[in-house]
Amino acid sequence: MDIMDLAMKGICAITKNFGKKVQKNSVAPEIEKVNPVEIKGKGYKMGFAKTEIMPDLNSGKTYWIAGHGSGHKMEGVLSPVFVSAVWIDCGNDEGILWLGGDIVGMTRVEVNKIRSMIMASDKIKGCKCINFSCTHSHSGIDTLGYWGKPNLVSIPSDGKDPEYMEMLMKKAVKVAEEAYANRKGGKLFYGEIKVENGLETRRGFLDRHEILTRFRFVPADGSNDIWIMNFGGHPNSLGGSNRMLSGEYPYFMREQILAEKGAEVLFGIGAIGAMDVAELDKDDNVNCIKLQAKMLADAALKIDNDVELKPEMKFIQQPFYLPVGNYVLTLLAMRHVMSFNAYPCKESDTGIAMMTEMTYMSIGGKNILLLPGESFVSTVYGGYKNADTSPTGEGGEVNPTPLAEIAGDPDMIVFGVSNDMTGYVVPPNDFILHPTQPYLNGYRDKFDLNHYHETNSMGIGTQKVIADTFADVVSRF
To answer: Are residues 217 and 297 in the same domain?
Structure first.
């Protein structure tokens, strides 16, 4: 037995004991089922604002790059990073705010702090819903905590900088206030385009869902468009050797669209679990992300199937408990590496659950689901591996119903890493753990495919909980 096996035994013992204490000393409050909210009017109004969220480069502090291995100190800047906000209403006194940030993710604890700060603002009236979607850039500042300096068994210290987090939250409120102030009337359109060979995966998926979606708001006064875009590919192509701060392809994509069309863009990622944007330059990673950005910007500019949307919105923002089976992430939570509240849960291996959420929305009849983690594309749109091709030897019948099928809408848009970060969502028949170091190290299956993603998941039961919660939401929508 090597040191990692021993470390894993210790981690399991510590976290299970923690779970027993949580079950003994606390109670999980009952979560109410949220009723849908509807907003209708005579015409859309939208407003946009953005601002940089750059670290203080003269402070002498160490900032950690998030998204690959832990302990990667930031050494410079390739591109600035931003937080942006869009206000949307239907021409009356009620609307929603949608924020986006060039960050790897944020826990619901921090998102709720931002929400509280926005709702306390006297500059915003009638806000009925606030969402925060992350671009999930793997070259941003650590805003979760996973990527600080690791110890001998690869357990990281907290990589968040309190002053940076405070600045990020205050600027999120600032852009929310400015987006509300900038609202103006106009028309809203929806269009999409397939980006052929725009995605690649190392997990043998049957379908990659290479669809780029675009909501396009055209102000009546002739001023610049506002776009909300979505594509299901990781912004991670600078690679694990990168030490430069960057928004990766989303930044360069937005810049091209702004330069060529004058449109401001709020961008969010889709079902990105084990899904990367095509590697367009294998020798130069910086050029690669710029080529990825050009591919997607060019595609967005070619969309020619826009349909005007009726001024109506509907949404349910539903919290739910997610059992935590990941011993390593539980240990990080115990060490306060990330912000986390533990609730007793008899169904999980660790004895605890977290409270997370999903938002199901319809804008002009177009269905949108905001999810907290990184969903495998098959969990949303189907295309499960069969018994012959799955690493477990089980067929797709053991997996929950895909979310788009539950919604009855194969074209439903998913925004991942929104309002919380809960890790990967892997279908059960594709879920493999290391036999002696579960969640600590990845494992290669009988097809020699790397099951790293399970180490950053909450467990094999995650997809079922999400599917069951979503089915209940849809039944009330």
So the answer is: yes
